[in-house]
């Protein structure tokens, strides 16, 4: 297969396994490109991409922007805080105005789940979902799987535990879909209050004891507690959360095997993970960031090749 | 579809030896020279030349790299089929080196145009030459000509020149295929 089965990347749940394979094979080529002395290719020189961020982001936005520029696309950036959205403009109007300036592709982060799907039904452009509320964050899940594949050879058959605030996490949901699609086993682990009620119906194991979860897994993906999304108290205190769900050196060394540590960032050092673990050789957190650019280049390249001239 | 043999295995071997000698004439010990096989089909020619230079003419260590030009092509989104990439493997800098591009068939010249851009990602070469096994005359879209050519072929646009190799297809042959 040399073409994606979709015209937009709205979520992992719309992808097939072959799509993921194609994205990874293409990302392998781009990873080689971004390690050259000159890290740029001219493929997308006639493509214009708008990055619409209705919610704050540092790493994802930088990573997308860099991926676009490495492919020689023209890039325009938009943040909700400095825009007419504040004056009452609707999403479709905002985007159609931008598309009138001859934009071919939109990368969007939005606080509302389903914003990407909604947009793809109403405007003529390729849409890449860069996170929609607590729903999906497909490129993060792709780069996580890509990093596992790079570190452990393949994703199929691996045991991955996602630890922390599953309830508010789009990274968790996209990761569950992506890992299962590639034949990995998935477990979620966290305080009961931060595990969605029917999460087991997705076919994942559920565990509330971090030690047991770590003893089971090959890879631990540590999530941040998303305080900004919490309207009520889900646990008594940060200190108590850390006591039960923090990955620290003692815990890691007490395991009888070496597991791979991941984190989508931003890290709250000393809460979900301690500094010595985050900076240890078992952590592939910075590889994830490097792979993020290559994977996003692959997604953009493959979607752009489907835009008809 | 009909096809006729343009070059047999024996003829290809003789031509490759001649090309190797012509390379030696210009590059002597290959100290500052690197061979770059253009992916996908130029790689085989480049590997053969490297092996002839090293085994038959005792040149020590000819540097060889593979260059994929997919992301540098000028027909992205223009063709029916999406472009598929191959591996680029250049483990050295080409800065200040004499580069020889090697491909199997030179047709419109567009691949070589793309390769000229692509190689710049690896530094600024001292000079770039082009070697092709087959040169299809009168079919160039760009002002690009080979410095070393195996055989000139006159073929009309409906025809295709196909090169097969022992390692891949079982036999060294150059065919003229009528589509």
From TrEMBL, chain A:
Pathway(s) per entry: Pyrimidine metabolism; UMP biosynthesis via de novo pathway; (S)-dihydroorotate from bicarbonate: step 2/3
SUPFAM superfamilies xrefs: Aspartate/ornithine carbamoyltransferase
Residue stretches making up the Aspartate/ornithine carbamoyltransferase Asp/Orn-binding domain: 157-302
Catalytic activity, as annotated: carbamoyl phosphate + L-aspartate = N-carbamoyl-L-aspartate + phosphate + H(+)
One of the record's GO molecular function terms: amino acid binding
UniProt xrefs under NCBIfam families: asp_carb_tr, PRK00856.1
HAMAP family: Asp_carb_tr (MF_00001)
Assigned protein family: Belongs to the aspartate/ornithine carbamoyltransferase superfamily. ATCase family.
Name of the protein this chain belongs to: Aspartate carbamoyltransferase
Gene name of this polypeptide: pyrB
TrEMBL record, chain B:
EC number: 2.4.2.9
Entry keyword annotation includes ATP-binding: no
Pfam families given in the database record: Pribosyltran
Keywords tagged on the record: Glycosyltransferase, Transferase
Record bears the keyword Heme: no
Highest taxon, organism lineage: Bacteria
Name used for this protein in its record: Bifunctional pyr operon transcriptional regulator/uracil phosphoribosyltransferase PyrR
GO-annotated molecular function: uracil phosphoribosyltransferase activity
Listed InterPro entries: PRTase-like, PRTase_dom, PyrR_bifunctional
CDD domains from the UniProt entry: PRTases_typeI (cd06223)
Domain Phosphoribosyltransferase, residue spans: 5-165
């Amino acid at each position: 297969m040399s073409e994606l089965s979709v015209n937009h990347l709205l979520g992992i749940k719309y992808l097939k396994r072959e799509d993921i394979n194609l994205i990874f094979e293409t990302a392998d080529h781009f990873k080689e490109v971004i390690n050259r002395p000159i890290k740029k290719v001219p493929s997308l020189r006639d493509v214009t991409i708008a990055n619409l961020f209705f919610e704050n982001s540092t790493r994802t936005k930088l990573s997308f922007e860099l991926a676009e520029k490495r492919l020689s696309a023209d890039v325009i950036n938009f943040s909700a805080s400095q825009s007419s959205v504040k004056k009452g403009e609707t999403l479709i109007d905002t985007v159609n105005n931008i598309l009138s300036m001859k934009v071919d592709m939109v990368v969007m982060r939005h606080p509302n789940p389903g914003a990407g799907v909604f947009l793809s039904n109403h405007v003529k452009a390729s849409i890449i979902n860069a996170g929609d509320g607590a729903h999906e964050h497909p490129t993060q899940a792709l780069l996580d799987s890509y990093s596992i594949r790079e570190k452990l050879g393949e994703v199929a058959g691996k045991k991955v535990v996602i630890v922390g605030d599953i309830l508010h996490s789009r990274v968790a949901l996209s990761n569950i879909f992506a890992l299962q699609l590639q034949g990995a086993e998935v477990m979620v682990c966290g305080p009961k209050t931060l595990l969605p009620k029917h999460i087991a119906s997705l076919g994942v194991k559920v565990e509330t004891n971090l030690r047991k979860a770590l003893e089971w897994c090959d890879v631990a993906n540590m999530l941040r507690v998303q305080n900004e999304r919490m309207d009520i108290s889900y646990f008594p205190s940060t200190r108590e959360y850390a006591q039960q769900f923090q990955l620290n050196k003692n815990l890691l060394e007490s395991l009888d095997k070496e597991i791979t540590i991941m984190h989508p960032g931003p890290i709250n050092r000393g809460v979900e993970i301690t500094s010595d673990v985050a900076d240890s050789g078992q952590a592939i957190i910075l590889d994830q960031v490097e792979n993020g650019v290559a994977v996003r280049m692959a997604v953009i390249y493959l979607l752009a090749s489907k835009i008809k001239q | 579809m009909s096809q006729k043999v343009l070059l047999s295995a024996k003829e290809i071997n003789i031509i490759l030896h001649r090309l190797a000698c012509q390379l030696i004439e210009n590059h002597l010990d290959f100290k500052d020279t690197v061979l770059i096989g253009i992916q996908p089909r130029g790689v085989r020619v480049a590997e053969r030349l490297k092996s002839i230079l090293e085994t038959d003419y005792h040149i020590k260590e000819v540097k060889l790299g593979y260059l994929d030009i997919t992301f540098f092509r000028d027909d992205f989104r223009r063709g029916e089929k999406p472009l598929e990439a191959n591996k680029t493997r250049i483990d050295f800098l080409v800065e200040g080196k004499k580069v020889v591009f090697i491909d199997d068939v030179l047709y419109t010249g567009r691949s070589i145009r793309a390769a000229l851009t692509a190689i710049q990602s690896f530094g600024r070469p001292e000079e770039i030459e082009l070697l092709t096994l087959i040169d299809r005359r009168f079919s160039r879209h760009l002002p690009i000509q080979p410095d070393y050519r195996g055989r000139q072929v006159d073929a009309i646009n409906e025809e295709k020149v196909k090169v097969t190799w022992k390692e891949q297809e079982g036999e060294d042959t150059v065919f003229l295929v009528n589509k």
